[in-house]
Hints:
The protein is an alpha+beta fold. The chain contains 5 helices and 5 strands; from the N terminus they run H-E-H-H-E-E-E-E-H-H. A hairpin with a 6-residue loop joins strand 2 and strand 3.
Amino acid sequence: MLGRLIALAGLTVALVACGPVYRNHGYIPEDADLSALVVGVDTIDSVETTVGRPSASGVLREDAWYYVRERRRQFGPGASRPVSRELVAISFAENGTIENIERFGLEDGRVVTLSRRVTETSIRDFGLIQQIIRNFGRINIGEALAEDN
């Protein structure tokens, strides 16, 4: 009876450990807050007051603000996978007013392959003995004797 109880407890722990774990990352403004913003009227300052400043903005210029939220699911020790991803982009005109408000989802995303940007070197890590053996045939005795004279 005790063996069955231990087996049942072990099975329960294993099933609970393999259950999904959800994690939420990021922030996007609520629809009510976004609907309060008026394109062409509200400025960068009023957007910051209404919905807050995002953690990401345009790379080269601050003419766009990006709010990102992602929900990921993980089963046991496996890698987590995105369940949903939302991005709200607020772009600003040159005069500082809102030019456009866009919403994107996970289905709008594309997989982007990043380059490694690692320069391969031809230098190898040779030990002292390997260096001596490799250079043994490269010695020119005639040149070595001519330098001494």
